[in-house]
């Protein structure tokens, strides 16, 4: 039995990496494809050449970094090093809770250190070369340190409570863990803007003026109360622009990147916001939250079936049943199902994007939205010729060409 599980874990890991590489490869084959007339005016020749170089360089980079991380993880699995690590930790401390915390701390810290040179290269070599990087080295390392500490704190709290539930009430583990994790993620959603974002960025209320007036006028027309519009200093790290919606009910706020305000004119920004309000009006935020919760429940239920099986821990090289080894083994065995769930969620998300676009269109903002989308696309060098298979599996938003087609309909 252990052998079957061992072989399944290693082969599922290898197959999913191969599958992802194939999809990436198909996508790269389409980089040079002829542009559709709907999107051919986004770049001039010179800029489009630069964009092509940017795509190719990123593809090469993700190929190399992906292969290295694949090889390291595959070796760890093949030689049972997760189990070795567990045996080493078990000799140091006897408390199951401490063992789990130390185990994940070592893995989390190790993978951050390993990925650091790659993200450094990506930020200060590739993004820098194409003029996107605005981050200083101080910001970069402070970000890494803060994310590590935040991950340790949040991860530590969640793991401690899960291990505690698991050790005391094994049979009811899945639904108690479900309630806890759901509550935690709703809380995090609620306080994201006020507790997490300020650790990394400054948010200031949008000052009075033409833009604020235009946004408020649109809010009135759309029957949507906007009292929290914030500007975030995205320019601290990158010239790429964005806008998003956070929180619910009274806590909800619209967040605009300062880079967005610099790159777009007022009517384009209003159209982009109309799209965001469309998400809210169609209750997409709530729908995503509910689906996330349902997904967590199903996953925890299946996890609880797996955790009682000591063979999972032994297949990873351990000697006895361990919570943390069970979680690692499960996450790999479950990954084909997560892949399917991910594809389904992307299909749904692309549907939601069309609905939000149509909401903006229903206020006659289609031309402004098209020009806003073109603007965003141009200023982030986004891919205008993605492969359909790549779009199907990886895109949460429809490609810009299809969005323009829909808006022009
Ligand atoms: Zn959207």
Q: Identify every distinct bound molecule in the structure, by name, code or SMILES.
A: zinc ion
Note the main sheet. 4 strands, mixed
- Can you write the helix and strand succession as a string? HHHHHHEHEEEHHHHHHHHH
How far apart lie the N and C ends?
A: 57 Å
Low-confidence stretches: none
Overall structural class, as computed from helix and strand content, comes to mainly alpha
The general outline is globular
Summed over residues and divided by their number, the pLDDT gives a mean of 94
> Nearest-angstrom radius of gyration?
23 Å
How many helical stretches? 16
Percent helix, as a range, is: over 70%
Secondary structure tally: strands: 4
List keywords for this structure.
4% strand, 409 residues, binds zinc ion, 16 helices, mainly alpha, four-stranded mixed sheet
Describe the structure.
- Helix content is 73%, strand content 4%.
- With 409 residues, the chain is mainly alpha-helical.
- The model has no long low-confidence stretch (mean pLDDT 94).
- It has a four-stranded mixed β-sheet with strand order 1-2-4-3, sandwiched between helices.
- The termini are far apart.
- The protein has helices spanning 2-29, 45-78, 81-92, 96-129, 137-168, 173-200, 210-221, 258-263, 266-281, 284-307, 310-315, 323-333, 335-361, 366-379, 388-394, 400-408, and strands spanning 203-205, 229-232, 243-246, 253-257.
- It contains 16 helices and four strands.
- It binds zinc ion.
- Zinc ion is lined by residues 275, 279, 353, 356.
